[in-house]
Design goal:
By secondary structure, the chain is an alpha/beta fold. The protein has helices at about 10-40, 50-65, 75-80, 95-100, 135-145, 160-170, 200-210, 235-245, 245-250, 260-265; strands at about 105-110, 125-130, 155, 185-190, 210-220, 275-280, 290-295.
Amino acid sequence: MADVAPTITDLAASWLRPAHLLALGVYYFLWSILDTIFVERSPLALVDIQKLRNKSFSRLWLDYGLFAPGALISWEIADKLADVGLGADLPEPIPSLLQSVSGMVLDIGPGSGTQVHNFKNCKDTTVYGAEPEIALHGTLHRNIEKDGLGGKYHILTCGAEKESLVPACAKEGLLQQGIGSGVFDYIVCLRVLCGVTNAQDTVDGLYRLLKPGGVLIIGEHVKNPWPHRGGWFIPRALQKVYMLLGWSFYIGGCTLDRDTEQILLRAPGSSEAWEKVDLDTQNAWGSMPRLLGYLVKKR
């Protein structure tokens, strides 16, 4: 799908979107420090920087997972910055893909559950949501119940990395037949692969959990493709600037310029691992281009 030519306002909003999120990340991190010292009265807890970062990002997600226009900016600007909502709906084909799943589904990093509504009309479906941040589980559970998915959507306290995910699946009784023939009919990755520590190893692990003919649904922000496929130099340079300013530190370990498409195509170490690949890069002129679509595991 070809990108519609952006306006000047589109470009400005896209290039500055990470700056807005980064500013929020810094704000929530400082707030978490003050909260730990003066409210929780646990200054020694500041020694655990990773725990502090997790706490900060969880608060940011809970407040901006369903971005409310006008929260910190005007309605006019909010219209252009709608994608700043960390859990904002992704464009087609993602909603249609999610609403068509069936069988065993693994939802990687559902966060507070802003996307679970897409599963509510799916028939003969059992969904397992792998969410490592316990602070998000309460809101996630409420969204599951609100969308009528109680008993159909189960929360796993784990991340996407195989060291965490495989034991959690085993504990849930999902690996009784082993991993050899796969476990899940669908695996969903929406805005999560940017934040895993070892992306290639993680994707390889997810590939092995897919059944032959299983579908991996992808909705990720990725590296600006400049100098290839219509990418732009300025947003590519801005990605590097934002990373140097601490993007990963403040935004949940996210890597703003990860080449996720190439990582997916290399899983698991072979270019012939996928029977079908249907991926499209949208907004290649922006600082947060979107990689949308799906891959089907070779039978």
